[in-house]
Amino acid sequence: MGGWLYLCRFDEIPEGRGRTVEAAGARLAVLRDGDAVTVLFDRCPHAGGSLGSGWIEDHEVLCPLHRWRFRLRDGRCTTIPGHSANVVESRVESGEVWGRIGQG
Ligand code: FES
User: Fold this and answer.
1) Number of domains making up the chain
2) What is the CATH number of the domain that holds 78?
3) Taking every annotated instance into account, which residue ranges of this chain make up the domain Rieske (predicted)?
4) For tag attachment on the chain, is the N or C end more exposed, with fewer CB atoms within 10 Å?
């Protein structure tokens, strides 16, 4: 891993929501908050809910299972501190969303 992976087109992500994509064997949540995109691993640290099926309020994504909240900018859980979601490095280029799964 380590290289940039194509995830989806920006206009395929509904505003204020997300979608789940698979890349290099990983399930990723691609989330759109206005013009900004955040990519997280699509597994809520609470009980494995799909964050890509969640929705966004106040720059946080809510897990659809039990509504824990995660800050988009750093994945930090604001419902139960210490249970952060994992952020994937991402960029939008020419209307395409790309992600890079870290070395870890
Ligand atoms: S699985 Fe996400 S809040 Fe419970």
Assistant:
1) 1
2) 2.102.10.10
3) 5-99
4) C
Q: Which of 20, 40, 41, 44 to mutate to test the pocket of ligand 1 (most atoms within 8 A of CB)?
A: 44
Which residues span the domain enclosing 37?
4-100
Closest residue to atom 3 of ligand 1, CA basis? 66
Single pTM value for the model: 0.94
Measure the CA dihedral 87/54/42/12, to 10°.
-90
Residue 104: partners with Cβ closer than 8 Å, 6 or more residues away: none
pLDDT tens-digit map of 66-98: 999 999 999 999 999 999 999 999 999 999 999
Q: How far is the CA of 93 from the centre of ligand 1 (A)?
A: 31
Q: How many CA atoms lie within 13 A of 27 on its CB side?
A: 12
